[in-house]
Amino acid sequence: MIHSFLMIGQSNMAGRGYRKEVPSIYDEHIKMQRNGLWQIMSEPINFDRPSAGVGLAASFAASWRLDNPKEEIGLIPCADGGTSLDDWAVGGALFENAVSQAKFAQRTSKIAGILWHQGENDCSPEKAEKYGDKFSIIIEGLRKELNIPEVPLVIGGLGSFLSEGIFGQYFASYPLINQALEEFAKTQANCYFVTAKGLTANADNIHFNALSQRVLGVRYYSAFRDLKHLLDPNHDEENVLATIYSRSYTKTEKIKLLEHEFAIGNIKPKDFLSELTILNQE
Amino acid sequence: MIHSFLMIGQSNMAGRGYRKEVPSIYDEHIKMQRNGLWQIMSEPINFDRPSAGVGLAASFAASWRLDNPKEEIGLIPCADGGTSLDDWAVGGALFENAVSQAKFAQRTSKIAGILWHQGENDCSPEKAEKYGDKFSIIIEGLRKELNIPEVPLVIGGLGSFLSEGIFGQYFASYPLINQALEEFAKTQANCYFVTAKGLTANADNIHFNALSQRVLGVRYYSAFRDLKHLLDPNHDEENVLATIYSRSYTKTEKIKLLEHEFAIGNIKPKDFLSELTILNQE
Question: What is the distance of C-alpha A166 from the center of its chain?
């Protein structure tokens, strides 16, 4: 049975890191949902916009796999860029879409956790004040609809780079959102807060860069595993990533990657067949 | 009210054409659904696999827009590569996902048509014989669930290149599928068949190349508009595409495209701001 995780929130959950900046993560036992079915995960997982790229879910899943080498994990991408808490209200399109996607996943998997990253679009003192109450209704609604009253919910902080870029004026209140998120996690059962301390952004100063997304995924997994808030970075983050990247591809993965190269026109039919023959003899 | 179209079938409906091989289509009044919401369409529309690319839906929509310059069109991508008719059976994940996505679309649009392309995965005499009966149950189920008993269903033929490539042996029976599809369309109300005559493929001899997908989209629209089977190519296909490509971008489109270039890191913050200022003064 696949252990599945629901991805919800806005662009930094969907992921805007540039793929060329980090080693890729590809593991036949890490799946993602498309059209209600599972397939091997590849990035972008959460294709909400043409600019979707590296998010935190891939390294979250790869960290999970280090501790669960004989199990499968599945990611259910439902995050949508630029969305506010109000956009996520119970009964709205985003909420209902997440419920419907999660229900498809429940046909063939057990939901093991909810991953949330959101708040950039609620950066004002007024909205920060209401964040906890609004978010609580959304999560309660989701838990009820999916009948998962106690699965861990991991939520992450906003980056301190937000107030520094060309759009910095819109994000001046980001510390209030971080406060609201942390407070929410500390007062709710089964909810864990993860710090974004030390993480950096793309040139837009809005989106975590690929490397920071990889680190953030490791942090999300650490909070999930320990059922504890992660208020300061762990010392072993880079080591965990190095271990993830050092994994060798299985035969199945090599064949799938070869098929992909052929599908996108990078290999000629003749070469594809001969390389496939070699792989099949491994 | 958006006029929406449901995209279902396998990889040649999702699209595997290479984007670099054709001019792009970008029109603020052509939308696509993501996470239950509409956004401006960009390719790949139907991101079922990492190899997803150009499909027929973009030029279908652009042809529709030539005749409906004051209206909006929305695409609902639900096709999934490598799937058989059995995979699309009523109650299965693909069918239910399509129903659920279409229902989200119905909140804010009126479904105006169904676009289907499938059959490569049913290329055997036995499966071809049962194609009509199986397909009829799927379409009937879909029409009932969505309460769209009479909207036009456009279905396209398979390419004659299928039997010629390195996987040609698996597709020897493709003419039987084309026969089944054509017969289905001729005996069902509100269903129109579109020929794939003359269309060509990527090097895999499985997937229509980008140019052929553009042409196929024009053909699908022609059948939809005239409510007639298209058994032979129209003579004006290339002209229609030339007209589509000659359209100038609106100010909104230029700004969105600039924002995308910034989001993917192709433009520095300073240059983004100065180009944005220029566009806003247009």
Answer: 26
Contact at CB, A165 and B269, closer than 8 angstroms: yes
Of A18, A47, A165, the CB nearest to B47: A47
In angstroms, rounded to a whole number, what is the distance separating the alpha carbons of residues B264 and B260?
A: 6
Structure tokens at A243: 């271990």
Checking if the pLDDT of A174 tops 90, the result is yes
Residue of B nearest to A79 (CA): B35
8 A C-beta contact, residue B205 and residue B162: yes
Distance CA A18, CA B6 (A): 31
Token pair of A128 as six digits = 């920060």
Cα B133 to chain centroid, rounded: 24
A201 DSSP assignment? B
Task: Report which residue type is found at B89.
Answer: A
Contact at CB, A51 and B202, closer than 8 angstroms: no
List the helix and strand counts (H, then E) for chain B.
Answer: 9, 7
Whether chain A has a CB inside 8 Å of the CB on B47: the answer is yes
Query: What is the C-alpha to C-alpha distance for residues B82 and A143, in angstroms, rounded to an integer?
Result: 34
Q: Rounded CA gap, A211 and A241, in Å?
A: 10
SS3 B8: strand
Strands (E), A140-220: 153-156, 191-194
- Is the confidence at residue A55, as pLDDT, over 90? yes
Q: Is A68 helix (H, G, I), strand (E, B) or coil?
A: coil
Query: Which two tokens mark A63?
Result: 């960290």
Q: Is the pLDDT of residue A247 over 90?
A: yes
Reading the block at residue A104, the tokens are 């498809």
User: Is domain A2-247 given the CATH code 3.40.50.300 in the classification?
Assistant: no
The amino acid at residue B189 is A
Residue B46 amino acid letter: N
Looking at the predicted structure, is the pLDDT value of residue A282 above 90?
no
Domain ranges of chain A: 2-247, 248-282
Note the pLDDT of residue B282.
Answer: 84
* All residues at 6 or more sequence positions from A241 whose CB lies less than 8 Å from its CB, including other chains: A59, A214, A215, A218
Chain B's closest residue to A206, CA to CA, is B263
List, in sequence order, every residue forming a beta bridge with A208; answer none if it has no partner: A201
Number of helices (H), then strands (E), belonging to chain A: the values are 9, 7
Is-above-0.90 flag for pTM? yes
| Sheet with A73-77, edge to edge strand ranges | A37-40, A30-34, A73-77, A2-9, A109-117, A153-156, A191-194
- Long-range contacts formed by B271-277: CB under 8 A, 24+ apart: B272/A166, B273/A166
Place of tokens 């059959």: B119
Q: Which of residues 91-110 of A touch B (CB under 8 A)?
A: 93-94, 96-97, 100, 104, 107
CA–CA dist B19, B42 (Å, integer):
11
